[in-house]
Amino acid sequence: MDITxxxxxxxxxxxxxxxxxxxxxxxFEVRSDVGSGTMRWxxxxxxxxxxxxxxxxxxxxxxxxxxxxxxxxxxxxxxxTYGWILLATGDLDATFEKLQAGDxxxxxxxxxxxxxxxxxxxxxxxxxxxxxxxxx
Length: 136
Known about the structure:
four-stranded mixed beta sheet, about 25% helix, alpha/beta, 3 helices
């Protein structure tokens, strides 16, 4: 089989703040932005990697979940325990400095983990955890 990861989904509760974070702070390009108000689906991705994207989506738009489940999702997003993604970079220190200068919400400074990777962590405006590993 020849399978790739094309798009991962993260929730947002403020499309403008999420767009600014992923475009301006992380430096991703905007591939699409559809919908209006808080009901926007925004696709972003790393420049030069058109086959890999993140879809920022409103979690309340799923018709298959109950009102109780919606409340749970909103509560988990507020605590920062709902969505997360793992990114990678060749220069973790420079990436960390750039993100910190862009007012990203730092969770963890660059750290050598006991399981063999060096990484750092931030939260996006919706509370999603963004971990960034150093590629060695």
